[in-house]
Amino acid sequence: MTTLASGTDTLTRDALTVLQPGFTGTTAPDWLLRRLGEGLASVGLFGRNITSPGQLAALTAQLRAERDDVLVAIDEEGGDVTRLEVHTGSSFPGNHALGAVDDVELTRQVALELGRRLAACGVNFNWAPSADVNSNAANPVIGVRSFGADQDLVARHTAAYVTGLQTAGVAACTKHFPGHGDTAVDSHLDLPRIDATAEVLHSRELAPFRAAIAAGTRAVMSAHILVPALDPARPATLSHRVLTELLRGELGYDGLIVTDGMEMQAISAAYGIEHGSVLALAAGADAICVGGGLADDETVRRLRDALVAAVRSGELPEERLAEAAERVRVLARWTRTAEPAHPDLAPTDIGLVAARRALRVTRVDSFTPLATAPFVASLTPVANIAVGDETPWGVAAELTRLLPGTETGSFAGEDAGHAAIVAAGDRRIVAVVRDEHRHPWMGRALDVLLKARPDTIVVEMGVPQAPPRGALHIATHGAARVCGVAAAEVMAPR
């Protein structure tokens, strides 16, 4: 592509301002610092950029030395989706655990403490919370990222989460509009479709977003989903009907609209990231998220030039781009002036408190707690892309702390149950599963384990849709590190 932008004119600066790119490494590369000087206003951080709170604070300080009002964004939902604690597991349970407790004040306190930790590291924009109503139990990408399947529950906890984050001075980004819960396809891989009626969508999917808007959410993230009742031709991210007529017009939202990652296959496979970004801005989006998979200067240059070319050709009105860029700057000004509230009296280990409260424990009369080191058989599904496979999960580490000598193995496929029995030897088995109801092989593995070893303990760390079984069944409602701690405390009480 021929470079069309000079790097100094207003049009070029606006085109850079609306981009939210990522990068590789734990320090800012020269190209990123140069783009910040040219007008780039946002940077997205992922697990690859973070090794410790101190390193993250140094990184954000490096960015602010180049541009003091930069929006530093992160995908930190807590629970299964953590970037701040990508190598250890999160200190906070995710949405599904908070929804299982259904204490909105607890949700607010968890979000507040998470927000404080982000703010202390210099992060001022969080792509969270997920406001999706997980009405489809087969959903492969939302699941425990949702507060639950009831729209009223999801609405009240979404509002509490937004309030908690923003009380800490961190802008919330409520996602994935108009709702990704009733899908059976992961938009990282293909374009999902929701065939619900407009009436169902308004009463179910939109309820949490109305609550988030009422709570003052500073940003909303669009979903790469096709919803024919709203727009039969374009996915929501590219739909003027969805972003401008519905979100802006009908729901009265005036904050920043951010796209989900434009490199996701739901958009990039059909439209390409350049044309997709132009269409998203024209539809009403204000910021283009890219960088989860694409993380280089060439991507930024391509998108900048595509937006400039679209304005010059008339495909994208210049005033629409200018309006979008100004919304980015408005949010940046808010993050600079937001005054974090004085500390609450919530305990600093509020995440563990919440994880303990979220447990659902089913015992049989003959259950005996663990007294000697067990064998932990993790029946491991393929991790969805939003969660990633870098973050440890399960209960083995926590049981090892309580019962030194605990051994573990990971098993999958049709022979998983038999393989786990052989590996366990004469040790008692703790079987750890994630969304048993979505993985038939996992259910069959449990059948084998429980028939041969009826004293097996089952720990479900996904959505607990399958009936509880085992000598002890623990539903943690998520796989955060603190969920593993809480489960281990039940299995091996001191």
Show the helix and strand layout.
Elements (H helix, E strand, L loop, with lengths): L9 H8 L1 E2 L9 H9 L3 E4 L7 H14 L4 E4 L20 H7 L2 H17 L4 E2 L24 H17 L3 E7 L20 H8 L1 H8 L4 E4 L17 H11 L5 E3 L6 H7 L1 H11 L4 E2 L7 H17 L4 H20 L12 H9 L1 E4 L11 E5 L16 H7 L4 E5 L4 H9 L4 E5 L6 H13 L4 E4 L11 E4 L5 H11 L3
Parallel strand pairs: 1-8, 2-3, 3-4, 4-5, 5-6, 6-7, 10-11, 10-12, 12-13, 13-14
Antiparallel strand pairs: 9-14
Protein architecture, described:
It is a single chain. This protein is α/β, with parallel strands linked by helices and 494 residues long. Helix content is 41%, strand content 11%. The protein has helices at residues 10-17, 30-38, 53-66, 95-101, 104-120, 151-167, 198-205, 207-214, 240-250, 265-271, 273-283, 297-313, 318-337, 350-358, 396-402, 416-424, 440-452, 481-491, and strands at 19-20, 42-45, 71-74, 125-126, 171-177, 219-222, 256-258, 288-289, 360-363, 375-379, 407-411, 429-433, 457-460, 472-475. The strands form three sheets. The protein has a six-stranded parallel β-sheet, with helices on both faces. Helix 17 (440-452) links the parallel strand 12 and strand 13 (457-460). Helix 14 (350-358) packs across helix 18 (481-491). The longest helix has 20 residues, at 318-337. The chain is globular and about 75 Å long. The protein starts with 9 loop residues before the first helix and ends with a helix.
